[in-house]
Amino acid sequence: MKRIAIIMLLASTFFGFSQQKSKTPTKIFSTKDRLISVYTSADSTNLRLSKTDILAFSDLTQPLETQICVFVNPNKTFQTFLGIGGAITDASAEVFAKLPSNKQQEFLDAYFSKDKGIGYSLIRTNINSCDFSSESYTYIQEGDKELKTFTIDRDRKYKIPLIKKAIATAGGKLNLFVSPWSPPAFMKDNKNMLKGGKLLPEFYQSWANYYVKFINSYQKEEIPVWGLTIQNEPMAKQIWESCIFTADEERDFLKKYLGPTLKKSGLGDKKITVWDHNRDLISQRASTILEDAEANKYVWGIGFHWYENWSGGEPMFNNVGKVHEMYPDKNLLFTEGCVEKFDAKKLQLWANGERYGRSMINDFNNGTVGWTDWNILLDENGGPNHVGNFCFAPIHGNTKTGELIYTPSYYFMGHFSKFIGKNAKRISSVASRSQLLTTSFLNQDGKVVTVVMSQSDKKIIYNLCIGTKYTEISILPHAIQTVVF
């Protein structure tokens, strides 16, 4: 008996080793036979997503402290990339409708074509009106708790046609998520869609049903809805459409009403994103909701904006990373950002684009899976906006001349969205000096995309180092580069 047991033990040990041996080894990235393409946009030049170099790798000796380096390690992978995009608001759709047909096509290609443009793959749109609407509105008659009068007829004039054209230009591959700014006035304690106020408890179920009505109505228009956020900026009392949810209130609305209602309605696959506000309070909101098991099960991710610097402080990029450390199983999604306070004299201000580059690099390095700009198009005045809250967009359309104005922000976003593919993996990317910011991704086709942004007033020569290989690259002052190999 003892002999049989020993034989069985030896056999199982051998089988175990055989299983380990049969495992496919992790594929190690190799630079062999790879050429390096460099694309550059730079301040005070005509370079805009321009191919500026084709380089090759050489053997790397020990880098010196006097050399500036970017170290990329494709064997160390992190989050999976979802996409980059912007918001099709009422304002964007109304401006688009005023453009000549040839400029409309140029605009669609510029954003949603990978070949002719920068290949957006994410879109956000508003449920009910927001500040970037020409007026306040809802989809029901005031007082209709049962939602019997619900209709999206007004969206069929501008928003729905543009969203459909965007999806078609992108080859049907856009992920659309939807966000409310305010419930109808009668559902709130201040009886006003504007200036904050709270959703009254007796309307929690009715408001949950509202999301279902909206999503179903859009999907009947053959516009798939990928996901939703619960409330835009739930801690902001704005002069435009707004509604306050404390962390406890958002948690309870999600777990008792919205989550179960979506599931019961056959919409349980929709990706629910909580918070949808600035980086400053993101940790408290995430902890309150995600540490409740019933609420947690409905949450796909945590959304955030970049406006926390209204207080005069710096952007709180590290807060995003802290949330990622605490809840690595949840997705982080940048849901809105724009340059505020429109001024036509600053349409080509390079610093506006640099704000995008700095945020995108830091947000991705802190675990973010996707990045969504605010309005994709505004007019020559930074609107329309029914409360005068005029802002910048990456592209402005002059409704008087029909001209499209491409701002630096468009090109900065393009350095990411044009080259990083869906389901790419972020990989390790580290700069040796603070003059350079960097992030890198490994696409599914095996190509590496490294973005390098210079914050320096001087031209810099840096070494791009991968294992035992490197290449020397020159970057102009205040430039952004995408390096593909």
UniProtKB/TrEMBL annotation:
Record-level GO cellular component terms: membrane
GO biological process, alphabetically ordered: glucosylceramide catabolic process
InterPro entries, per database record: GH, GH30_C, Glyco_hydro_30, Glyco_hydro_30_TIM-barrel, Glyco_hydro_b
Keyword Hydrolase (UniProt): yes
Gene3D superfamilies: Glycosidases (3.20.20.80), Golgi alpha-mannosidase II (2.60.40.1180)
SUPFAM superfamilies named in the record: (Trans)glycosidases
Entry keywords, A to Z: Glycosidase, Hydrolase, Signal
Domain Glycosyl hydrolase family 30 TIM-barrel, first and last residues per copy: 83-420
Source organism superkingdom: Bacteria
GO MF: glucosylceramidase activity
Keyword Hydrolase found: yes
Domain Glycosyl hydrolase family 30 beta sandwich: 423-483
PANTHER family: GLUCOSYLCERAMIDASE, LYSOSOMAL ACID GLUCOSYLCERAMIDASE
Family: Belongs to the glycosyl hydrolase 30 family.
Protein's UniProt name: Glycosyl hydrolase
Source organism of the structure: Flavobacterium psychrotolerans
